[in-house]
Amino acid sequence: MAFVFVAGATGFLGSNLVQALLPRGHVVRALVRPGSETRVPAGCQLITGDPLDGASYRGRVGPADTFVHLVGVSHPTPAKATAFRGVDLKSAHAAIGAARFAGIRQLIYVSVAHPAPIMKEYIQARSEAEDAIRASGLNATILRPWYILGPGRRWPLVLVPMYWLMGRLPSTRDSARRLGLVTVDQMVAAMVKAVEDPVSGIRVLEVPEIRVSRLLPSR
Question: Any alpha helices (H) in the chain, and if so which ranges?
């Protein structure tokens, strides 16, 4: 059993992660903004606070073995470039500070696959967050998906033939692997595995590693 603090528990990834952790016997503390308490799956311990302000919740992170940071701009597009620094990067800095304050064993951070030909501001914000994690001295698992498939998020499936072709050309094979599609179930499985198998140092999971993740019976 692990004690897991989840920032972003009401979002697409967070809600699915929480629903996977609870039946496996883990204790989940969910950070939510005031007024969003009803959006968190039943069974969590609710912590109200502002994910952009670590001081608003850092004293209530512990006891926790793992801090999972999933806060960010929803449905990122190039038009949201300013928000990537004001939300994604700012909340990551707040999480790093809160995790260090609480003395957690491991931080799990969802970054993004890079380099890539588009979404440069988004990638830059997430890359700077990765740099801050490394500089903090925290143990961390960093996941780098490109696009996560799930309910209402299946339009990239039309690109599958293009991925197939890119994967067979030597000049584009690496990009096809690194910028491939993953499912929400694969992401959740990778994060659960990281919770149950904490790392010492920094562990980076790229798309190929995420794709092979499967939920095993709880220990």
Answer: 12-21, 81-83, 90-102, 120-136, 160-166, 173-178, 184-196, 207-211
The domain that holds 126 is classified in CATH as 3.40.50.720
Kindly state whether residue 219 falls inside one of the protein's structural domains: no
pLDDT of residue 168: 58
Tell the residue number behind the tokens 């990765």, with chain if given.
130
Cβ within 8 Å of residue 75, ≥6 positions away: none
Residue ranges of the chain whose pLDDT lies below 50: 163-164
**Total domain count for the chain?**
1
Sign of the CA dihedral running 196, 191, 95, 14: negative
**3-class SS string, 127-149:** HHHHHHHHHHCCCEEEEECCEEE
Question: Dihedral of the CA atoms 123, 107, 88, 74 (nearest 10)?
Answer: 90
Q: Tell me the per-residue pLDDT of 30-77, one tens digit each, with 9 for 90 and over.
A: 999 988 888 888 899 999 999 999 999 999 998 889 999 999 998 888
Judge whether 133 lies within some domain. yes
Dihedral of CA atoms 20, 130, 8, 89 in degrees, nearest 10, equals -170
4 φ/ψ sector (left φ>0, alpha ψ -120 to 50, else beta):
beta
* Three-state secondary-structure class, residue 41: coil
Structure tokens of 162?
């293009």
